[in-house]
Specification:
10 strands; 37% helix; 8-stranded mixed sheet; 10 helices; two-stranded antiparallel ribbon; single chain; Rossmann fold; alpha/beta
Length: 309
């Protein structure tokens, strides 16, 4: 694991005062001997790395190492206000995503969802300008992985690269994540995060979702965001077509997931299967939302094998 600094454009004016949120550390896993022709960009889950805790890198370290064994470079691109991006400019205090969402729930979109698209473009251009720095050949494939809420970010980033840079991914991997975020039970959110961030309780989640409603009917709100938050039929809208944004797509579900109810996941999976999407693969593991099985991130090896196909 090797850090590097990425500078990105902050789109939401109110968030420009958080300097560490637009010039921040990413982590990279690469083989030092041979240059690769494939990079996987990873997005983390909600509230991971707040205060830049080293232990929160563990699952991405496991995935990165497995990808390296397949000759693939891996990069963790932190979500806004996560990992090093959660640190205030004085390097002491933390700026939790929850503090932003408590100001107003629409920050999940403004400076969250929208910022991810700016970030992934900045990272791609940085790689394209100097691929050798990232252990890559001049011509390389790009894949994207997202865990938990990072799965929503991964879909947004994939769509952005296709629309704005005409780049079709090799692989899109959505891990322990789902769409129609409004279906998440507020009490399960409170139980899951109570040891991580007490302020992110049932009331905070409900308030956030209610405040997000102000964006629902707005024509300026990204159609894919609307589908991921409220939609009932992912892939039905013309703006989102998995066969167009990636050569192959992998959905990994947790059979004991506390956040994304397995029944909801089965329903979404069946919806996509009925559409006959030939590039989608579904994999289910006997894990909870942390995704751990025998103290390891159970999906790491499977993810690396899939991306290497």
């Amino acid at each position: 694991m090797k850090p590097f600094t990425l500078k990105t454009e902050v789109l939401h004016q109110n968030l420009r005062k958080y300097t560490n949120n637009h010039e921040f550390e990413c982590q990279m896993w690469k083989n030092t001997d041979n240059r690769s022709n494939h990079v996987v960009i990873m997005f983390n889950g909600f509230l991971e790395g707040i205060g830049n805790k080293e232990t929160d890198y563990n699952k991405y370290d496991e995935i990165g190492e497995q990808l390296n064994q397949k000759g693939i470079v891996a990069i963790l691109l932190p979500l806004p206000f996560h990992f090093g991006r959660s640190m205030a400019s004085d390097g002491q205090d933390t700026v939790s995503p929850v503090s932003r969402l408590k100001v107003h729930g629409t920050y999940l979109y403004h400076g969250g969802y929208t910022q991810v698209k700016a970030d992934v473009k900045a990272l791609f251009h940085a790689i394209k300008d100097d691929p050798e720095r990232f252990g890559l050949t001049e011509h390389f494939d790009v894949s994207i992985l997202g865990y938990s809420i990072g799965g929503v970010s991964a879909i947004a980033a994939a769509k952005c690269l296709k629309d704005e840079l005409q780049l079709k991914l090799d692989s899109l991997v959505v891990v322990l994540s789902a769409w129609k975020i409004q279906d998440i039970d507020a009490s399960s959110v409170s139980r899951f995060f109570r040891f991580i961030e007490r302020e992110f309780n049932e009331e905070a989640w409900t308030t956030m979702m209610n405040e997000l409603e102000t964006l629902r009917e707005s024509k300026s709100t990204d159609a894919v965001f609307k589908e991921l938050i409220w939609g009932e039929d992912l892939g039905a809208i013309p703006e989102l077509n998995f066969e167009q944004i990636a050569k192959k797509v992998l959905f990994i579900d947790g059979q004991m997931d506390e956040i994304f109810n397995p029944a909801i996941m089965r329903e979404r999976r069946e919806t996509l299967l009925k559409k006959g999407l030939k590039n989608c693969t579904f994999f289910s593991l006997p894990v909870n939302h942390f995704g751990r099985l025998q103290k390891k991130f159970a999906a790491a090896k499977y993810i690396a094998t899939f991306c290497a196909l």
